[in-house]
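User: I'm curious whether this sequence folds into something compact or stays loose and floppy. Could you predict its structure so I can see for myself?
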Amino acid sequence: MKRVLLHLVHGGGQLHPSRRHGYDIVAPLDEEGRLNTDLWRSHWAYCRVIRFWGDSPSLAGMLKYRPAALEEEGWFFDFDPNSSDDDQFGYRLDIRKFIQGGYLSLHDRHDDVCKFQIVNVAELPAQEAFERRPEAAASGAAS
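Assistant: Here's the prediction. I'll summarize afterward.
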């Protein structure tokens, strides 16, 4: 498991790069830095996402995957398991390499595209990766 930190580069009403807007993600990445569905299937409960957005409260959610057979396929962030209105999908996250300095795009709640820079990718010690849950991690995401 890896810890991935994204900072907003452009979008969501923000015109300049911002360290105050982004995501802190625990993700199942393979050796090449790609999301690994097999690892996700065995450890999905630990694949958390924290959204930090300026002065707004942090949101805790999960990194999830929908197989291609479903209407809305692919990797996405889910902040409310009882609603799909808050789901945020990434553009081609299935083939994207999560490497420091790289970029990726996410669709926000209004289907606007926001561009993020991958500012850090770090190995997460097993003990930390498998102890942290979204509800426990939300308070420390933006620090």
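Summary: The CA atoms of residues 118 and 140 lie 19 Å apart. The mean pLDDT is 81.
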